[in-house]
Amino acid sequence: MKYTVSMEIALPRERVAQLLADPEHLPKWLRGLVLHEPLSGEHGQVGTKSRVVLQMGQQKFEGIETITRREPVELHGIPSESVVLFEREIVGEGMRSTARERLTEAGPETTLWVSENEYRFSGLLMRLVGLLMPGAFRKQSLQHMQDFKAFAEHGTDVREAKG
User: Fold this and answer.
1) In this predicted structure, which of 66-75, 78-87, 103-112 has the lowest mean pLDDT?
2) pTM score, two decimals?
3) How does DSSP classify residue 161?
4) Alpha carbon 45 to chain centroid distance?
5) What is the pLDDT of the chain when averaged over all its residues?
6) How does pLDDT run across 12-38, given as a tens digit for each residue?
7) At residue 91, what are phi and psi to the nearest 5 degrees?
């Protein structure tokens, strides 16, 4: 299953990249985060592995996140300072998730965040979930992006949200 979601954030690209890469901020915008524990490497850098535990309703998901790519993107063979690319892969029981996060300057004080997501399911139960509820994955990705936008632009912390 593949899908792409995007959102504009009213901050410069460099600031958005800093906020996304700082592990101190994860609990403030990553709804349902129980644990993000480094296992090896430096957070946000290529090759870094972290244990991730998320709670979504009654379901708890645990996996290992690996940063597989982080770099400015080359356009026509020329390094572009206007784009930053993060790729991460999370492997958990019955599922492998790959996300490519692209941050592009949409203006001097605006960033376009495009998130390309791919899920592969190996267990029967997870395959059924993927077939029956594909919209739930896209909805969750959009929720995370909206939560990050509210945190980045206004300092809103999801842990303080009602409901």
Assistant:
1) 78-87
2) 0.82
3) -
4) 14
5) 83
6) 988 898 888 788 899 999 998 999 898
7) -115, 125
Burial (CB < 10 A; 0-12, 13-18, 19+), residue 61, is: middle
Sheet holding 95-107, edge to edge: 2-9, 110-121, 95-107, 78-92, 59-75, 49-56, 33-40
Which domains are delineated in the chain?
A: 2-32+67-154 (3.30.530.20)
**HSE, side-chain direction, 13 A CA sphere, residue 30:** 17
Alpha carbons 151 and 28: distance in angstroms, whole number: 7
Helix (H) or strand (E) holding 157: none
As given in the structure block, the two tokens for residue 20 are: 């996304």
Tokens 């244990």 locate to: 51
Q: Which residues contact 161 (CB under 8 A, 6 or more apart)?
A: none
State the DSSP code for 158: G
Handedness of CA 52, 42, 98, 155 (dihedral sign): positive
pLDDT tens-digit profile of 111-125? 999 999 988 888 777
Contacts 24+ apart (CB under 8 A), 15-23: 15/152, 16/103, 16/111, 16/113, 16/152, 17/84, 17/103, 19/148, 19/151, 19/152, 20/44, 20/86, 20/101, 20/103, 20/148, 21/86
